[in-house]
């Protein structure tokens, strides 16, 4: 059985430095939550998240049955990946991607009533920094309809892995007799021009600072 607490393939690409893990988590705001439901069925869903110190915050509707099961203590894994470049090798076998990835295992718990509002604000500001200061606070009905969950980042329960650099050269890939281009193609994610909703009159309600800053922030 493969070990879940260490890398078995290319272990040299791993890191146990929390700064590497945190840098990846802070650069992204979506990942995949996976678990097994009470009836033994596999379950996975992409979710927005935020790192809040030594923990991951996620949220969902209180009507989401599977998320309720996870929040009540079922074992879970949260995965995040960022792709920096396509690695175009001399052969398809030698081709790959440059990336950073992380998996965090543990047991989710529900945020307490005292934690709930702050946790949801932290999630919102992870996606659009400063937005919560521009809009009204969530009301009691909205808070009651939303479940915020916490996954602690515990040493021994997370793995970080990265790949950087070039593909193998023609000699290493046995491609000397079949010349072909090789290299990397950087992958970038950028924000487009903000588009107001049809009912928003731009002359009366300008694009807020939080949204304008998105176009000034590099993404990966």
UniProtKB/TrEMBL annotation:
InterPro entries: Pyridox_Oxase-rel, Split_barrel_FMN-bd. It comes from the Bacteria. Signal peptide: none annotated. It holds the Pfam family Pyridox_ox_2. This is Pyridoxamine 5'-phosphate oxidase putative domain-containing protein. It comes from Kineosphaera limosa NBRC 100340.
């Amino acid at each position: 059985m493969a070990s879940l607490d260490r890398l078995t393939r290319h272990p040299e690409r791993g890191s146990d430095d929390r700064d590497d893990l945190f840098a990846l988590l802070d650069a992204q705001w979506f990942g995949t939550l996976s678990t097994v439901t009470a009836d033994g069925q596999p379950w996975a869903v992409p979710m927005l998240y935020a790192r809040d110190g030594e923990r991951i915050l996620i949220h969902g509707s209180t009507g989401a049955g599977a998320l309720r099961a996870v929040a009540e203590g079922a074992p879970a894994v949260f995965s995040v990946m960022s792709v920096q470049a396509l690695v175009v090798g001399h052969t398809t076998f030698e081709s790959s991607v440059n990336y950073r990835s992380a998996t965090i295992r543990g047991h989710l718990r529900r945020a307490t009533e005292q934690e709930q509002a702050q946790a949801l604000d932290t999630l919102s500001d992870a996606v659009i920094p400063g937005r919560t200061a521009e809009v009204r606070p969530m009301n009691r009905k909205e808070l009651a309809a939303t479940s915020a969950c916490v996954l602690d980042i515990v040493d021994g329960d997370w793995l970080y892995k990265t790949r950087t650099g070039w593909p193998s050269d023609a000699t290493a890939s046995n491609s000397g007799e079949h010349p072909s281009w090789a290299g990397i193609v950087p992958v970038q994610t950028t924000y487009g021009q903000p588009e107001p909703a049809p009912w928003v009159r731009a002359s009366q309600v300008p694009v807020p600072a939080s949204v304008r800053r998105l176009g000034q922030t590099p993404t990966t």
